[in-house]
Amino acid sequence: MVRRPRRSRRARAITAALMLASLAATGGVELGGLRAVNGSVGDAQRYADAHAYERAVAVYRAVAAETGPLYLLAHNQVDAAGVDAERTILTWATALAAQGQVDDALAALTQVTDAALLPDREREAAQIALGDARRQAAAGRYDVALHRVDEALTSLPPPDLAAQAQQLRPTYALGAARLLLQRGDAAGAVSALDDLIAAVPSTADASRARALLPDALLAAGRQALDRHDETTALRDLSRVLASFPGGPQAAAAQALLAAPQPVQGTLVRHDGGAVAGALVRLGSHYRPVYGGYETQPPYYVSHTDGHGDFSFAAVPLGDYVVEVQEGDGWTTILTPDGQPAYRVSVEQLTPVDLAFVVVPG
Hints:
Layout (H helix, E strand, L loop, with lengths): L8 H41 L3 H12 L10 H24 L3 H8 L8 H21 L3 H13 L4 H24 L3 H14 L4 H23 L3 H14 L4 H10 L3 E8 L10 E11 L2 E12 L5 E7 L2 E9 L2 E4 L10 E4 L5 E7 L3
Parallel strand pairs: 1-8
Antiparallel strand pairs: 1-4, 2-3, 2-5, 5-6, 5-7
Helix pairs in contact: 1-2, 1-3, 2-3, 3-4, 3-5, 4-5, 5-6, 5-7, 6-7, 7-8, 7-9, 8-9, 9-10, 9-11, 10-11
């Protein structure tokens, strides 16, 4: 039987002392980490109290990023620092809004993502947007006020604030439409009025919007004509006639819709060569007669240029045929079966491009 030598009391004491020293060192390090975290959290709170919110948020986020055994004793503070940063952002957003920096405030709130704070974020965003909406409306900037109300509604506000936004929106939409009309944005005014009428059709604001709509549509049609957008002008002016007949706006729209239209084309030979210096006219009421055909006035005449191009600046609405001068007379260009080859139908707000008109061989 082999006996192990017993360790001396001195050896055991040294081993125990070393173990205790190691534990003390580890505990000291962790206590140091705790003190550092507590100090940083205190600094962050002082920054927030001094309204230095950006610094406060930065310090809280730095604490939240600390990991490892060094911060074992401080894990509660580290875990809470991320939420503290977002709570500070909520306070920061309120302060920014109070200084008139509403867009910055709303942008800051998008950084709040903790699930426990989302209800606070949505309420704060709606309150900021609605508060600025009221201020903008009081200053007559209804277009901005309407934008703020829509921001409040899209931020998933709590029911009480959503109800406030819905109540304010019709009045602000009507004011925005009037403002857009004054600024020359008739198309924007029409859109705002249409949205208002569709949203609250039985309200007093909707009645006011319907009364304003004929002027807005007429102005929108005129502005579309000014920018050579005949398709949009035709839509808006036709709507005036259909929805508001008998009024002065309908009479003005009818006059615009009846306006003469431009007609253009290029006169060429069968080989594609341009026919320069020729007379081209549009004749009305084409009909075959014994031994030929005839057209009736009014006539509209144009000369071709060196490229064979011709144009009529303003042709009244109606149906015409193309005629070309030959000698002392005029020839209607016919198909093999004796029908006009180039008929022109001038319609409301529709410029006509005949492309290539081929003269007889």
